[in-house]
Amino acid sequence: MIIPEKNLMKLANGSDVRGVAMEGVADEPVNLTTDAANVITSGFVEFLAERTGKAKKDLRIAVGRDSRLTGHDLKREVLKALTAHGVVTVDCSMASTPAMFMSTVFPETQMDGSIMITASHLPYNRNGMKFFTKDGGVEHEDIITILQNASRYPVMEGERSKAQRYNLMERYSHHLRKKIREALGGANEPLKGMHIVVDAGNGAGGFFATQVLGRLGADTTGSAFLEPDGHFPNHIPNPENKQAMAAIRQAVLDNRADLGLIFDTDVDRMSAVLKNGKEISRNELIGMMAAILAPDYPGSTIITDSVTSDELTEFLEKDLGLKHLRYMRGYKNVIDECIRQNNAGVVSPLAIETSGHGALSENYYLDDGAYLAVKLLVAAAKAKAAGRKLSDLVKNLGAPQESQEFRIKIKGEEDFRAYGNGVLKTVEERATAKGIKIAKPSYEGVRLVFPNGWALLRMSLHDPNMPLNVESSQEGGVKEIAVQVEELLEGFNSLDLSVFAK
To answer: Which family does it belong to (predicted)?
Structure first.
């Protein structure tokens, strides 16, 4: 059976593939079928053969999955397609997304490519596929090529029994343990005396408590939801979810832990809670990572997405002596800009989104929540040994008085992106005419600067809406700024401006 290209293209989601993989949610029909996973795998095999210049039979491809309910069935079809093409196929079973990339790096594995079956933090009925080469995650253009290739293939019926098995997570955990030991002087149990709790949200991140922290001497009593369960019965495994952050905060306080760590489903994002129960905010996580890296990369450039606060810029530039470059949202966007900066001779050690996606140049530009946790743990251990607190790293980081995001829907426009771009152009013209300052350069949308704060209006990466982020240094300032932005949007009848009345 050949799946039409137009059907496959609906699964394109930025730099990966995502769709509805099982029934159970009203008005969400299954479109990421097992057949679709099979032919998409063939599309990736063809793509990778062209990229590497190797014959298909000489390719080595690893496959992993997170805890989602549909992971087993989708992986079965991926393995069938790979073995049908004669690819050297390695089944890594439960894994994290960063570990799947590292399968192309570790000398014991040396994969040409890998496939991770995950939909990150999306609901239980969703799933997806992420693809890696030795150069990292594929780009959006590569996804389009893979799906175009896939539309030419029938479902392949290979022999899954030909797939090799490998405990990638043990190898990956060894890699993380080694990093921590080396950074803390080489002791076998460098985290002894530290109490750290982990919340894996029933995703794939439970290994960090058992295979990393526990084996380095840390007390992990109170860690929660480590067992993989694709129903996600306790809370969504997402560091941006309020219920998830409340759970790890309570675990820290109840167990009097030194630090709490929380991961998303496939462990490419993380966040943390300090000993006093304070959640590390999105700006604070960026500030902490930058402060940790600053001594090794003085004067370097930190790449973030576009919605970071002015207070973060001031902290990075005045307190740490670094440079701050706000770029487009989307973890691949900030990572690719970090790579471009370094290739151009501008030292940039960190690309990080406010969502918790963070990639370090020293770690293959890989957005790896577990590696960020390693850097944070090392800093926490050093601070404790010196009688200081981890929060001291960002003691001078300010915060806005108010912040809010408005999501303005675009209604009834077939080409919503063109419509949204027209809105942005007009808003910039109207703001200029009114004497409102516009921040330049802006790599995404229009950033308006007001005496008491700022507003960023941009297009959503994938959906027909225009997010408006507003921050103010004064109480009541968000409402004042939002009123002015609403005036700039008058006459655009396809915009749902009712969000300003809520």
So the answer is: Belongs to the phosphohexose mutase family.
Please give the tally of structural domains in the chain: 4
Alpha-carbon distance values, 37 to 92, 198, 306, 433 (Å): 17, 32, 34, 52
Domain of 11, in residue numbers: 5-166
pLDDT at 436 over 70: yes
- Of 380, 399, 418, the residue that ends a domain is 399
pTM of the model as a whole:
0.92
For residue 79, the domain's CATH number is 3.40.120.10
pLDDT tens-digit series, residues 243-255:
999 999 999 999 9
Residue 465 exposure: Cα atoms within 13 Å on the Cβ side: 12
**What string of H, E and C letters represents the secondary structure of 104-151?**
CCCCCCCCCEEEEECCCCCCCCEEEEEEEECCEECCHHHHHHHHHHHC
Q: 433-467 in b/e burial notation, b at 16+ Cβ within 10 A?
A: eeebeeeeebbbbbbbebebbbbbbbbbeeebbbb
**DSSP conformation class of 156:** P
In degrees and rounded to multiples of 5, residue 301 shows phi and psi of: -110, 130
Residue pair 388/380 in contact (Cβ under 8 Å)? The answer is: no
Residues 427 and 471 occupy one common structural domain: yes
Bridge partners, residue 354, by sequence: none
